[in-house]
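re: ur question from yesterday

yeah so i grabbed the chain u mentioned. its 312 aa long if i counted rite. heres the sequnce exactly as i have it in my notes:
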Amino acid sequence: MTVEKKVPISLIGVPLEEGSGRLGCAMGPAALRIAGIRQALQDLGYSVEDKGDIRAVPARDLALVPKALNLQTVGAFVRELEAETYEVARSGGLPIILGGDHSLSMGSVSGMARHASDLGRPLFVLWLDAHADFNSPETSPSGNMHGMPVAYFCGRAEFSPILPVERPFVEPGHVFQVGIRSVDPQERELVAANGVNVFDMRAIDEMGVAAIMRRILETVRDANGLLHVSFDVDFLDPDVAPGVGTTVPGGATFREAHLVMEMLCDSGLVSSLDLVELNPFLDDRGKSARVLVEMTASLFGRRIFDRPTRAA
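ran it thru and got these C-alpha cells back, copy pasting raw so excuse formatting
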C-alpha cells in the first residue's frame, strides 16, 4: 500500500486592515493561529511551516489616487505577498494566506497567476464571498480597496503601478463567485460585461451548492488549471460567523460551506487559499476563527465523522 505524499503547506500572515476602512482585520492572523490552524493541518498529516507575518513599509513611490484609500500601505503588502506566494508555490508548496482584509488577494492571486504562467497552465479563482469586489477607484462608492481585488487581478483596474503592468492576469471567465448577495449597481454591470461567473445565493437555493461546485470543478479539471480559493468570512451567514465588518444576512450555512470545502478536497485541484476579513474585535469569543479553522480542515481532508463533539 502506497502512502499519498501531501504537499507541504506554508502559512503566511497578512495583518492588513487598511483596505477595509475599519480597524480589526490586522488581528485576523493571530486569531487563526490561536484557534489552532497549524495543529489542525498537522493532525491531518501535513508538514506545515508558519512563515510569520508580512511586515510592509508603505510604498512611497506610489502616487496617491483619489478613492483608493491607503494605497501606499495596501500596495506595500500586495507587493510583499505576491512575491511570498509565488515563491512558496514555485518551491512546490501550498500557500495559505491568513488575513487580513480582502485587498490582500491582489497580491496572493497575482503571485499564483505568475506561478501558473510559468507552468503554462491557466489559473482559476473560486471567490467565496458576499461581494463581487470588482470595483475600481472610479466606480467604488467608498474607496476602500478590499472592494477592488478581482478587477485588479483580472487587469480591469490598473490604477496604480503596484505590480508590473506586464504581469500575468486572470481571465475574468476563470473567476467563479459563489455566495454573492451584495453588489454595487455599476459593479454589477462590469461583472456581467467581463464574463465573471456568478452564482449568487438564489442560485445556491435553486441549484444546490453541490451542482454548482461540480460545474466549477469540472471546468478547472478539463482545462488542467490551478485553483486558488479565496474564502471571505462574510460568505457565511452572520449567525455562523459574526466576526466580520461587512455582514450581509442570508449567507451560506455551516453545512453548505463544509460541503464546498469537502468537494474541493475530493477534487485535489486546490493550489492556494486565502482566509480573509476575519475581525476578532467583532467576533463572539473566537467563534468565527474556529469556524474558519474547521473549514480549512475540511478542505484538507477532515471528514464529517472525524469531528469531535463539543460540550454544550
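noticed a couple things. Residues 127 and 177 are 5 Å apart (CA to CA). also Strands lie at 9-14, 48-53, 94-99, 123-128, 175-180, 197-200, 226-232, 270-276.
anyway ttyl
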